[in-house]
Amino acid sequence: MTDARDTVLGRIRAALALAPTPATVVPRRYRTGRVLPDGERLALFTDRLLDYKAEVRPCTADRTAQVVADVLRDHGARRIGVPAGLDPRWLDAYDGDVSPDAADIPAPRLDALDAVVTASAAGCAETGTIFLDGSPDQGRRALSLVPDLHLCVVDLSSVEAGVPEVLARLVPERPTTLISGPSATSDIELERVEGVHGPRTLVVVIRKDV
Amino acid sequence: MSTFLGMPARPPRSPYGTGNLRGDEPFPRAAHRELGNGQLRRNLGKATTTIRTKRLNVTGELPDWEALRDAGSAIKTDAMNRLPELLEQLERKVTEHGGTVHWARDGAEANEIVARLVKATGSSEVIKVKSMATQEIGLNEHLESVGITPYETDLAELIVQLAHDKPSHILVPAIHRNRDEIRQIFLDRIPGVDPELDNVPAHLAAAARAYLREKFMATKVAVSGANFGVAETGTLSVVESEGNGRMCLTLPDTLITVMGIEKVLPRYQDLEVFLQLLPRSSTGERMNPYTSLWTGVTPDDGPQDFHLVLLDNGRTAALADAVGRAALNCIRCSACLNVCPVYERTGGHAYGSTYPGPIGAVLTPQLAGMHAADDDPNSSLPYASSLCGACFDACPVKIDIPSLLVELRHQNTEQSGTTPEKLAMRAAAAVMKRPALYTGAQKAAGLGRLVAGRDRTISRLPPPFAGWSDSRDTEAPPRQTFRAWFASDEGRAALRAAADEHDGSHAEHDPGDGRHDPGDEGHDHSHGEGEKK
Ligand code: SF4
Asked: What's the rounded Cα separation, in Å, for the pair B417 and B423?
């Protein structure tokens, strides 16, 4: 028996032989390599995030710990999870329980957390998107997914103008999650409901001077 | 293999009698029934109008939208041209990163592979991310038949599954249901649901969240589709909104992804085009809430056992058609559905296939054939269109759906001997309040395309208006697309006059016309012969 792989590849070659077409050159006349000043990127990124109903807290690096603590307090988050590589100084002002994550912690235990605090790999201003890539300060994907509040710290220097610019920063092989606001559905009579399975609240702390 | 003078064998369609690529009845009859569903039409009208407006806003704000469409179209065409090498590269990269790649000649084979993989884990349940490929091959039905319970986790798919229903729209599959129906479905079918549950969408979504959360935490195997598979890196992608995709792609031990072979992209960089085109065209958002990108297996993060099933199921048959092949470029955004006057009236069920609307009308016959049986319902699909061209204008990868429809009508006429006029008239009578105008439009467009060749310009009015326009020395619509001409005052006036005249002389072909005022929003269409076998 010819195996399915050979059969399918054989069919494709046959199809291309039956209907040959000339080679195609991809025109890339769309915008790439855009550079926007800090102020514009911050304004655009913030505008998009607010449009998605995310909460935005701009700050300076020296205020990180205070802002993180304020957000967690405002949302009543008493037990939080953090990736093992998160900068511990970010939690200096927080007085709740902090559980550092580990690969063998089962998902139901993450469900018992009030919130998760992570860093981020990059951001995209034009679409209001945050990129997580599983680096030690962002943790495994389950950690930033299961808890109901995600507080994500984004450095303005990592926020690019558009999609081509930000994708160029990524390492393709890393597990990458693009987040644009809290989860949402419009499946019932097209009425938008924020918060289905992912975190129902997304708070983005933008550090303007990093 | 007996090939004559080196001519390669034509690849087979999706096998007859399998999967969900064929309805039980021809489009006109199914459409007629669906038109009686006022709920469906109201919901659809609201949905398509809303999404259309949002889409125009977010595509209009990008100054390089047309350049992105050109790039998207060319990337897909390039990928189709190089499909064998790209799939082999994808396979190599996924394998290098710890995944296992399987190939499936058709849906039945894919179903068996998935069932075998699930059984090997010892699990009798799977959680599923909304996926058109698995809907196409009837995976859920197959899994159930071998004792595996699939749980759909997309809210709309969950509603459809709980109600033993079929999706009616690519993007919002339960758009034919209203909140009261959904509440009742949940009360009847979700074990342990709060009996006090009301019909507020946020509360209904919360009920689904609570029900599925437990499944996400406990189920060991997930099945997904893929929006894109990058050959260069072996990276797969799922684009979604609710987070159910992230749950399925992240929490289970085993992930099985079923991907049509046409979803492969050459380079990682190509995502920069499609991650702009898809969300803006699909939901009308600048970006969808969540996109997951993963490459094989990542130690200590997500499923440690990953399988990719590459599915043919008629795709190579479509690839063997130089014109029809373009339908494989589709990225399933559903923009063409939302702008289609025929879809807006009939909804998705009338098309009988997993793929409804304009793209379904060209993709389904190519994947599954139009003449697999006597009176194959798929042979009516190429006529389920007025060829107005709105789908082409909306398509982010610039698939010229009207030209593809015309090509399929050709092929159908050649094979069946039925006159296209008759078939088009039936579709028109079933769908439109003013069939003559509709038919006039489709004729002018379709035949105009034939007159003018495939450059989509019309050199003169085609029959039956040819004589009419010749004798009146009407200015022929010169050197512009039919759509542009149709949209002009001149075009509208000429067509209306022609259609009226046509009514008078061909009334017997036109059972529906004249009974409904253009302003009549009633849906009591009684069209007589058009719907009969
Ligand atoms: S044919 Fe084009 S517009 Fe229609 S669903 Fe596919 S990509 Fe979208």
From this structure: 11
